[in-house]
Amino acid sequence: MKKTKHKKHKLLLRNLTLDDYDNLAVLMEHVYDNLGGAWKKDQYISQITRFAQGQIVIEDNGVLVAAALSMVVDYYQFGDAHTYAQITGDGYLTHHNPDGDTLYGVDIFVHPKYRGLRLGRRLYDARKELCRNLNLRRFIAGGRIPGYSKYAENLTPVRYIEEVKNREIFDPVLSFQLANGFHVRKLLTNYLPIDKESFGFATLLEWVNLDYNDTEPTVGASKKSVIRLGVVQWQMRTLTSVEELLKHAEFFIDAVAGYHADFVLFPEYMSAPLMGLFNDKHPPDAIRALAGFSSEIRNGLLEMAMSYNINIIAGSLPEYSNHELYNVSWLLRRDGTFEAQYKIHVTTDEVSCWGVQGGDALKVFDTDCGKIAVLVCFDSEFPELARLAVLQGAQILFVPFWTDTKNAYLRVRYCSQARAIENECFVAITGSVGNLPHAENMDIQYAQAAIFSPSDFSFPHDAILAEATPNTEMTLIADVNLDLLKQARTRGAAQNLAKRREDLYSLEWR
Predict the structure, then answer these.
(1) Could you give the CA distance from residue 42 to residue 27 in angstroms, rounded to a whole number?
(2) Is 150 in the active site?
(3) Helix or strand or coil: residue 188?
(4) Is the pLDDT of residue 2 over 50?
(5) Which of 249, 449, 465, 477 has the fewest CB neighbours in a 10 Å radius?
(6) pLDDT for 87-139, tens place per residue?
(7) Whole-angstrom Cα distance, residue 506 to residue 403?
(8) Beta strand pairing call for 365-367 and 426-430
(9) What's the confidence (pLDDT) of residue 35?
């Protein structure tokens, strides 16, 4: 099963360490060549020593490409009328107070070559999560307004900020911060005198932590247990290029990522809208021609996974190499890595019409939200696969499908719901809807996307977390709580996994 070569990203968000100084200095010199360059080493050592948890970096294959620095302060000791040097202790973070109530943003920067991947948003999300985990009231930062230099002759800084807020003017810093949920508390003067583009002015920005609990003691970071799933039930329509298909997919990825989903699931054979380009070919030749687009589609979606900070299950795409045709689902992680799950059980129609072959391995994938598995359509109808995946730690199963009739769809639906109940896991399914005229063997579609849970007291009474309107293009978004799975498996009414009679039977992969 040969894979097409692709320049691999591997994004990792982690805390900075003392050993990172030289590499971070290179990045800062590149970004801040007009603002004094990198921190001095003794400043950096002080930052890490005082609050290592607040110093975050993103690396790509070991190269530092973006970073965000912060500290905790008792904000009312400073108030709104402070300068950058005053509150940061000239960059040494001497005012960091573990018992403070406010996370203060010291710095954030991204290598210019990586600015299209929305790494800044990812860093802001990480600091908001830190704010929640430390149970702090707010996240405050002083923000540059570098675009002001173009308007200083005609607008006061206050008027400039209003124009940016009203979307009349775009500021590369302030517009980004407003889009990330911050509001402007006031204008700061002489905040950072060295900032000539902003004329020394800055915005005092605030993000309020709505999860703040003034009776709860400060706690450390906790492992994420609530995962947000998004599924796309999309209309099959004739498209004329890969670029058009990717734009169609990006619309849904953008929409789902806007709700901070961790995963988005697309249907099986998601590239089928391009089948109309091969109407003159026989079905076996048409599907092989379609496979020629698969690497480009996968790579485009991988860029979106990083850019929108969301893990993408790319439904499935045909793969043709060495005279062998497969149906392959792709896990495209938001850190830039990717892996494949080959459909194991291919349908009679896939074999007779196209000559698709079945894969020979079941994968359980590690993700930043725990272990998952992908069962492509017909694979969901074989209970052994789901059980093997769950026994290897999978807590969420994704089922991209393509069905043409309601009875075919119901086989996938009922079996997927059974997999959720018997394995006490979550299962998300989605397919495509509508018609593809003149696309032989893929001309009609029927689907109703859904997200299923175990059937127990902690879950919905019908074990359905969400379901779409049948045969309508739309998205579903639902949260799944992994802690509830632990409860169901240890204290639930049924405890299917725990009650297996392993003294009588066993299940193993040959």
Answers:
(1) 17
(2) no
(3) strand
(4) no
(5) 477
(6) 999 999 999 999 999 999 999 999 999 988 999 999 999 999 999 999 999 99
(7) 32
(8) unpaired
(9) 74
CA 170 to CA 179: how far, in whole Å? 11
Place of tokens 């080959």: 342
- Domain membership of residue 502 (yes or no) is no
Q: How far is CA 22 from the centre of its chain?
A: 30
Do 313 and 175 lie in one domain? The reply is: no
Token representation of residue 285: 């030749």
- pLDDT at residue 216 greater than cutoff 80: no
Catalytic option among 59, 197, 206, 268 = 268
Distances (CA, A) of 214 to 218, 225, 300, 306: 10, 23, 45, 35
Question: Is 343 a residue of the active site?
Answer: yes
- Cα distance between the two ends of the chain: 19
Cβ contact 445:434 at 8 Å? yes
Measured between alpha carbons, how far is 230 from 250 in angstroms, rounded to an integer?
A: 13
The two structure tokens encoding residue 233: 């039930």
Distance (Å, whole) CA 398 – CA 426: 9
Residue from 59, 131, 369, 377 carrying the catalytic annotation: 377
Provide the sign of the torsion angle of the four alpha carbons 125, 131, 137, 143, taken in this order. Answer: negative
Count how many domains the chain has. 2
pLDDT score, position 427: 98
Active-site residue identified among 343, 350, 415, 422? 343
Query: By C-alpha distance, which of 425, 356, 430, 432 is closest to 396?
Result: 425
Asked if pLDDT for residue 221 goes beyond 50, the answer is: no
Q: For 376-423, write each residue's pLDDT tens digit.
A: 999 999 999 999 999 999 999 999 999 999 999 999 999 999 999 999
Residue 358 belongs to what domain range? 229-491
d(CA 176, CA 52): 26
- Structure confidence by residue, pLDDT tens digits, 462-506: 999 999 999 999 999 999 999 999 888 888 888 888 888 888 998
Tell me: do 247 and 386 sit in the same domain: yes
Backbone φ and ψ of 127, nearest 5°: -75, -35
Residues 80 and 192 in one domain: yes
pTM of the model: 0.82
Query: Does residue 339 carry a catalytic annotation?
Result: no
